[in-house]
TrEMBL record:
The gene is nirD. It comes from Flaviramulus multivorans. PROSITE patterns: RIESKE. This is Nitrite reductase small subunit NirD. CDD domains: Rieske_NirD (cd03529). Residues 20-121 form the Rieske domain.
């Protein structure tokens, strides 16, 4: 089970080797999540229209290894964009993937780029 988790590692802008096209802006719901596939990874993508920011993270919740984070409610906690897992409501920062409840759970985050109405996610593999 932990093997599934191992394939998810945070990618920073500087690490990006490939900007993977995942669709047009209009393909994604506003203020909620969608799930895309890259190789063997499931990635959750969120469009925050209030702040005009996009975020991406692993779809896998590290709590019980459920592929559900794209279905989570998004919002912010003290200015930090976050997603709440729909299963047991654990909150994760979409900026650095940390668990906002202070637990030792972390998710991988990925950079998102919007260009000419197209959405790209940065990967390093
Ligand atoms: S599976 Fe996500 S909080 Fe439990």
């Amino acid at each position: 089970m932990q093997d599934i988790l191992k394939q998810y590692e945070t990618v920073t802008q500087a690490d990006v080797k490939e900007w993977f096209f995942v669709g047009n802006v209009s393909d994604f719901p506003e203020n909620s999540g969608a799930c895309i596939k890259y190789k063997t990874k499931q990635i959750a993508v969120y469009n925050f229209t209030r702040t005009s920011q996009w975020y991406a993270c692993q779809n896998l919740c590290p709590h019980k290894m459920e592929m559900v984070l794209s279905l989570g409610m998004i919002g912010d906690k003290d200015g930090i964009p976050k997603v709440a897992c729909p299963m047991h409501k654990k909150n994760f920062s979409l900026k650095d993937g940390s668990n906002l409840g202070g637990e030792d759970l972390k998710i991988a985050t990925y950079p998102v780029k919007i260009e000419n109405g197209n959405v790209y996610i940065g990967f390093s593999d």
